[in-house]
Automatic annotation (TrEMBL):
Organism: Oryza brachyantha
Name of the protein described by the UniProt record: cysteine--tRNA ligase
NCBIfam families referenced in this protein's UniProt entry, alphabetically: cysS
A Pfam family reported for this protein in Swiss-Prot or TrEMBL: DALR_2
UniProt keywords, alphabetically: Aminoacyl-tRNA synthetase, ATP-binding, Chloroplast, Ligase, Metal-binding, Mitochondrion, Nucleotide-binding, Plastid, Protein biosynthesis, Transit peptide, Zinc
Gene behind the chain: LOC102705464
Coiled-coil zones: none
Swiss-Prot/TrEMBL catalytic activity: tRNA(Cys) + L-cysteine + ATP = L-cysteinyl-tRNA(Cys) + AMP + diphosphate
GO-annotated cellular components: chloroplast; mitochondrion
Catalytic activity, EC: 6.1.1.16
Length: 575
């Protein structure tokens, strides 16, 4: 009964969360050839199993339905919000039945990545997974801007080679992404390996009369591209110098932007027709996306802050280089806010992924991010992370209990399931696909799992549930469907047991306690109860609850589990 009560308490919280060689000439050193990035193998280094396909999910739902409910519907058509058209559109690949091309702007690796980066790449990982679930073949490209003003400045500050610094932070970024269960992209190109492609594109833009040379710099001429501003909706007069546009009195128009920048003394550079220099920020993505996906492809994504100027400039320079260049869907995720202000390194209000995952399981951060629609802003708070972590523990504990029960008892897999079980499975199938196909409403998809989890806990822990016909078969079937949902959302661990242990370890770290200390408190409380010192017993329970350790009394004694700290439970309940 204690386990059932704990399960019901946790369930009550669920709705509340809602490649050419580089020719760089480097000062005092030889040309550096970067080796492919390695993905370290650690506690959370796996990115989880590939998502279940819609065919498999639909087939299993259909098999369940054949035992008593209506047949599963055909997979719904995917609708995505297109920033360019400012409306949701039916997703139709440029090549029906062919490969979907998706390019997502990557990081400039000059520091540890923050949870604003996590928000972006988790969002596009979900899109990638859902496209695979819908049986699309996807070529997913995500770049590294491994040479940039910020990298050079940070390298000079630390007395480190800029390429060495960017590689170190690139490796750390990939480790963070693996921790968050983001699947590796198909290709992860670096700017420094694609200088030839960049130079060739700049030449084409110059030949087409959309750029000009000043000294060793090459600038794009926005006045020669009448469609400039079509993505962001900004007028040319809005683009004043100094507001995300470099100030340079030599430019023909203050809004003109650099395609190639002459190298300064002591900076790395590459030979070009315009002298020693390096690419401007925007041209790299146009050149690399065209190299790997062609001048026209399906999806281009990034954070909302990239709409202008980065993606606006990408469109201009790509079209100036090739008039047939076209991107079908421009997709952007919302910001992570701290005190209603966008989180960013430049504002100094950022929280790194590693800072969070020191105290929280990486998948607690992932489920926190998925609890808000990807286009909406999300406010970061420790309280919401605690709720997310509690939700994750409840989910995995339920599924672990289910696995153990089914393993210990023989089930009759061939027998028909009860009608109410097939109804729950069909409902989960329908709600999951309806929400995900409606512009990836992950919060609704997560909510759809709540009812099956509650039913499973009733079957596992209540007297009435334990007597239900085909109990084990129902548990096994629902676990299978929930597993499929978690797989697509990137929340399926390699082992429920291991994930639960990791969640417990993080909870102990947040509480600044060891498990031996918790067990000692449990012994003290047990002794106090035997001595009828109930006030002291309650005091110990509250002391542990205050730091996020919940005690559960049962026939076999008292155990503990992570929980939302006592002081925050009232806040959560009022959310």
């Amino acid at each position: 009964m204690a386990a059932a009560a704990a399960a019901r308490r946790a369930a009550s919280l669920l709705p509340l969360l809602l490649s050419s060689p580089s020719r760089a000439r480097l000062p005092h050193r030889q040309t550096l050839t970067l080796t492919p990035l390695l993905r370290p193998h650690g506690l959370y280094s796996h990115s989880g199993p590939k998502p279940t396909s819609s065919a498999a999910f639909s087939a299993s739902a259909g098999a369940a339905a054949s035992n008593g409910s209506a047949p599963a519907e055909r997979t719904r058509e995917l609708q995505l919000y297109n920033t360019k058209s400012r409306r949701k559109e039916l997703f139709q690949p440029r090549v029906p039945g062919g490969e979907v091309g998706m390019y997502v702007c990557g990081v400039t690796p000059y520091d540890d990545s923050h949870i604003g980066h996590a928000r972006a790449y988790v969002a596009f990982d979900v899109l990638y997974r859902y496209l695979l679930y819908l049986d699309h073949k996807v070529r997913y490209v995500r770049n590294f801007t491994d040479i940039d003003d910020k990298i050079i400045a940070r390298a000079n500050q630390l007395g480190e080679d800029p390429f060495s610094l960017s590689k170190r932070y690139s490796d750390d970024f990939l480790s963070d992404m693996a921790d968050l269960h983001c699947l590796p992209p198909s290709v992860e190109p670096r700017v420094s390996d694609h200088i030839d492609q960049i130079i060739n594109m700049i030449k084409q833009i110059l030949d087409n009369g959309c750029a000009y040379i000043i000294g060793g710099d090459v600038y794009f001429s926005v006045e020669n591209f009448p469609e400039y501003g079509e993505l962001s909706g900004r007028k040319l007069d809005d683009n004043r110098a100094g507001e995300r546009v470099a100030v340079d009195e030599r430019k023909k128009n203050p809004a003109d932007f650099a395609l190639w920048k002459a190298a300064k003394d002591g900076e790395p550079g590459w030979d070009s027709p315009w002298g020693l220099g390096r690419p401007g920020w925007h041209i790299e993505c146009s050149a690399m996306s065209a190299h790997y996906l062609g001048h026209s492809f399906d999806i281009h994504g990034g954070g909302e802050d990239l709409v202008f100027p980065h993606h606006e400039n990408e469109i201009a320079q790509s079209r100036a280089a090739c008039c047939d260049s076209s991107i079908s869907y421009w997709i952007h995720n919302g910001f992570v806010n701290v005190n209603s202000q966008k989180m960013s390194k430049s504002l100094g209000n950022f929280v790194t992924i590693r800072k969070v995952t020191e105290l929280y399981h990486p998948l607690a951060l992932r489920i926190f991010l998925l609890g808000t629609h990807y286009r909406s802003p999300i406010n970061y708070s420790i309280e919401q992370l605690n709720v997310a972590s509690d939700r994750l523990y409840y989910t995995y504990q339920t599924l672990q209990d289910c696995e153990e029960n089914c393993r210990q008892h023989q089930s009759n897999a061939g027998d028909p399931l009860p009608v109410n079980t097939t109804n729950f499975i069909q409902k989960l199938h329908d709600e999951f696909e309806a929400s995900m196909s409606d512009d990836l409403h992950t919060s609704v998809a997560l909510a759809a799992v709540s009812e099956p989890l509650k039913v499973m806990n009733d079957l596992l822990h209540t007297r009435k549930g334990k007597k239900q016909e085909k109990r084990l078969e129902s548990l096994s079937a629902m676990e299978e469907k929930i597993r499929a949902v978690l797989s697509v959302l990137g929340l399926l661990p390699s082992s429920y047991y291991d994930a639960l242990q990791q969640l417990r370890e993080k909870a102990l770290r947040r509480a600044s306690m060891t498990e031996d200390q918790v067990l000692q408190k449990i012994e003290e409380r047990t002794s106090a109860r035997k001595a009828k010192q109930y006030e002291k017993s309650d005091e110990i329970r509250k002391e542990l609850a205050a730091v996020g350790i919940a005690l559960m009394d049962g026939p076999e004694g008292t155990t503990w589990r992570p929980s939302v700290p006592l002081s925050e439970q009232g806040l959560v309940a009022s959310t």
